[in-house]
Each structure stands twice: as structure tokens, then as C-alpha cells.
Amino acid sequence: MSSLYVFIPAGLLCILGALGVILAKQPVHQVLSTVLNFIGLAVLFLSLSGEFMAVIQMIVYGGAVMILFLFVIALLTARKDPIERDSGHLPGQRVAGWAFGGAVLAMLTLIGVVGKGPTKLADIPADFGTVAHFGHELLTTHLLAFELTAFVLMVAVIGVVILVGRQKG
Amino acid sequence: MLASMNLYVALAAVLFALGGIGVLVRRSPLAILMSVEIMWNAANLLFLTFARVHGNLDGHVMAFLVITVAAAEVAIGLAIIVLLFRKKDSADVDQVAELKN
After folding, report:
1. Is residue A13 part of a domain?
2. Per the domain annotation, does A146 fall within a domain?
3. Which residues of chain A are within 8 Å of residue B53 when distances are taken between CB atoms?
């Protein structure tokens, strides 16, 4: 398993990023926090010998998805005031959200820490998680899942075009 | 010192709960979408952790699927947000009630 010297900084990076998303007021700061979170996760994926997944995490999430967010923010809200000025329609939403989320956090973390986890790891081949190994697995054992992926992406593209591609008039 | 698997599971739990707090507390649709992304990623971390524990790649394939579905979800979610902003000036999720009645 990985060294604690890798795990602790990467984990802190993830948690800081998540906190930034919750607390930051400016949308751009939220996007940057999310990227921070994704970088930490990519490091953790590498420490779990998931090379391909780490690279995908950086390219698809840290790159493409967050650029999409940035474009939408630049289009819509960059110069407007932050949305959450008033207290909103739901009374006590903030307090209730923190309380419920805090309870879930305490419970899940307790289970994660106290639960009797696996004590020994399976032996893995030297190329575990590399592009070649992953690609072989994806295109032989999980071919149906791979083809469904293509279908899902096409549905998403068509949906977006139908939703926002229409001209007014 | 080696990091045990329990630490990875606990970190994934913390990230998932933080994302959940974001969804519950924030009222800007962009912030909610980003919090949901964090929750997806916590699940991915679990998939990769247990793939490593059991030494097979099924978890990696599942995480790959999750990333694809998340990308599709972000595209459609952002399209809906753009539509909302076209319709009205602010997009506080409390004020979005177009489907009511």
C-alpha cells in the first residue's frame, strides 16, 4: 500500500477542495477548489496503482468538465453578485443541512475507521491498472459496458443540442 | 508507515458527506452540481480502493463508467442551468418552480 507521506497530503488536498466548494462565494473559486480536489484524487488513484484512472481523472475531470463549468460561469454569472444573499425560502435550511450532513459525515467516517477492513491485499501483476491492462479488460470482459458508454454519451450530446441548440423564434 | 485500506474508505466517506453537505446547504445550481461531482468522485475512490484490495480490474471499469456518466450528467445539467439563466436573471434553486401546477 501507499506511504502515509503520500496519503496525508493528497487526502488533505481533497478535503480542502471539498470544503472550498461548500464555503466559497465566488463561482470561479468553487471551480478552482474542485480542481484541487480532483488533483488530490488523481494522486490517490496513482497510489492505488490505477495509472489509467489517474490520467483520465486529470484529463476528463480536471480538464474537460471543469472547463465546461468555467465557460458557463463566464457566460452567465461572472460579473453578477453571488446568488445567496438573502436567507432563502426554506427557514433554517443552512443549519439543517449542516446538521444532517454532519451526522452523515460522523457516521460514515466512524464506519470507515472502525470497520474491520481487509487486512491483506491481493497480489497484483506488475502492469495492474496500466492502459494496456485496462484496455484489454474493457474490450474483452466488459465490452457491453463499453458500448453502453458510447450510447450514453450520444444521448447526452443529442439532449444538450435539443435543450439549448434551438434558435428563438 | 503504510496507509491502511480503512483510511482510504474513511476519506471516501468524508468526501461523500462533504459533497452531500454542499448539496444541502448551497442554493446556487452550479455549486450543487460541483458538490454532486465530489460525491461521484468519492464513490470512484471506493471503487479503486476495493479493486486494489481484490486485485482485479472490475472496479476500474465501473469507475470508468461513472466518469462517463458524470460527464454526460454535467453536460445536460449545465444546459439546463443555461436555460434557467436565459429565462430569469437569477437562478436560485428556491425560486425555480416552473414545473409547479
Report:
1. yes
2. yes
3. 118, 121-122
Of A128, A55, A107, A117, residue with least CA distance to B8: A117
Q: How far is A126 from chain B (nearest CA, A)?
A: 11
A contacts of B63 (beta carbons < 8 Å):
50, 53
Q: A74 with A138, same domain?
A: no
Say how many residues make up chain B: 101
The Cα B46–Cα B52 span in angstroms is: 10
Count CB pairs under 8 A between chains A and B: 257
- Domain boundaries, position A31: 1-80
Q: B18 and A105 in contact by Cβ < 8 A?
A: yes
Q: Is residue A52 within 8 angstroms of chain B, CB to CB?
A: yes
Provide DSSP, B43-79: HHHHHHHHHHHHT-THHHHHHHHHHHHHHHHHHHHHH
Question: Which pLDDT score, from 0 to 100, does residue A62 have?
Answer: 87
**Which residues from chain A sit within 8 angstroms of residue B83, using beta carbons?**
163-164
Domain range for B20 is 5-87
Neighbours of B65 (CB within 10 A): 18
Q: What is the CATH number of the domain that holds B79?
A: 1.10.287.3510
Domains: count for chain A: 2
- The rounded distance, in Å, linking the Cα atoms of B1 and B12 is 20
ipTM: 0.89
pTM above 0.90, yes or no: no
Is A65's pLDDT higher than 80? yes
